[in-house]
## 1
Amino acid sequence: MVQNENTTELWRPTGPEELDLVRRSNWTAWPPRLPEQPIFYPVLNEDYAIRIARDWNVPHHGVGYVTRFHVDTAHLQRYPVQQAGGRTILELWVPAEDLPEFNHHIVGPIEVVHEFR
């Protein structure tokens, strides 16, 4: 996780449907979660995001993307880091109902940095 004085860099592996909704937001927001998705989980390192996009999204959707974005660091303090596996399998768990406010604290655009097919 790269952090400067004001923002923290986060990563999100995503499939084509979610990416299309991000594109429709003009690259400024993540879409609301579906009923079966109670949390939004950005990840804290690029390698972990790549593994999910390549190894899960590609087999399930034919394509996987890795996005990068920055969020106000102060806002992230309410979401403790979750270790979802090994030492580098780190995520933030943002409850679905918090996502509109989380989106408000995104600084700059959401960027696609990798594509896997």
Note: The longest helix spans residues 46-61.
## 2
Amino acid sequence: MSSQVRNIDDALATITEHWQPHRLASVNDYDVKVVKIQGEFVWHTHPDTDELFMVLSGELTIQLRDRDVTLGPDDVFVVPKGVQHCPKATAEVHALLFEPKGTVNTGDAGGEMTSQLHELA
């Protein structure tokens, strides 16, 4: 990806489906992804990496086996590697994700919600 200014709102405006992350930028071996979230995802883990969620708008609940974590705009939460989690949102949420390149959105769960990483135009 070339060095260029990227606008988060413009990037989000191009996303038409929920749970389909799009690469906004790359930093070393990490991808910065934008995503629209609504509904409930699948329970999954990322055995080899932490996952950072930053909510831009809306309210996101990250269900953990021992508690729920609720994030609002400008909140950040890191799900530690190997921790089973399930994001959900009653209304649409706009978020940034920070993950190592190649991280699959459904982690070890796979299934129909697994997305290929989309590139922004």
Note: The longest strand covers residues 85-100.
## 3
Amino acid sequence: MMNFTIFLALIVVVAFLLIVVIMVQNPKGGGLSSTFGGGGSQQLGGVKKTTDFLDKSTWYLATFLLVLILASNVAINKGGDSTDSKALDPDATTTQPLPDAAPLPTTNDATTANDTAQ
């Protein structure tokens, strides 16, 4: 169970980073590079390459998230208990307890005879 908890924490962190990286990007192509004036011939510390970095980091984070999700499936403790349906197992026999039979109402012959006589 501890391995699954580690995978779960990593999935949450990577998903948060992926959200941040996607939100920083500008859908019209400007993005973070246009904030620093990277749209023209000016460059502030290589900001023109920022969109390439954000694009690649989005793909890497998305791939890493997918791998973590698939790997977490292996880490889930299956346990010895089988939670599969017994309907799929032809050898399984299940016995269900019968409900207690409710007592039938008793009819008194004297009252029945009086009811029919009237």
Note: Residues 1-25+45-78 form one domain.
## 4
Amino acid sequence: MPVVIKRVLAWGSLAFLIYFMAFRPEAAAQMFKSIGVALVAMAQGLGDFLTGLMT
């Protein structure tokens, strides 16, 4: 992917994130909480997998 397209997508994503947090703070907070819960669940699953390998 050309560098120009990557830059445009990155700046567009940042602008959308700022807009989303400014005008829909409750929805933005809920989205970030959901992402955090998913990351914790994935880490827990990986830990359970590695523990299962070691026992």
Note: The first helix runs from residue 3 to 23.
